[in-house]
Amino acid sequence: MSALRGSCLCGACTLSVEAGTEAGVCHCGMCRKWSGGMFIAVQAESAPQIADGAPVGVYRSSEWGERVFCRDCGSSLIWRSVDGSHYAVSVQIFDDPAAFPVTSEIFIDHKPASYALAGTRPTMTEAEFMAQIAQQEG
For the whole model, what pTM was predicted? Predict the structure, then answer.
């Protein structure tokens, strides 16, 4: 893990985060609507540190998840679990999103047929992903 700095489109929200070097993609309907496409994110080791006074908005999109965004420009920043145990930071907030190779895809059964990522990687359907989450919680 290494410390990374990122920002929203307008620069009003800046953050620092200890994050991994690989990205995952979510194709669920909520992520696609929220991010304007597939949500490509890197896992954070701990809570990202957002600059004081940043115009951050939070939308609780489910019983277990919240979506963090810039209230000024609308940029998608972070998906986080309500309990604070998981943070997925958008690779698009970093200067070089290509530095994070995509190594997994979830909700593959929700991916529109109009696009596909190059290469192969592990994928999970919604049912497979939810079963994995239930197993981890159990």
Answer: 0.93
- What type of residue is 26? C
Distance CA 88, CA 81 (A): 9
**Long-range contacts (CB closer than 8 Å, 24 or more residues apart) made by 116-125:** 117/25
Domains of the chain: 2-137 (2.170.150.70)
pLDDT, tens digit (0-9, with 9 covering 90-100), for 56-101:
999 999 999 999 999 999 999 999 999 999 999 999 999 999 999 9
- Measure the CA angle with vertex 112, ends 133 and 68; round to 5°: 55
Beta-strand relationship, 102-106 and 123-124: parallel
Identity of the amino acid at 109: D
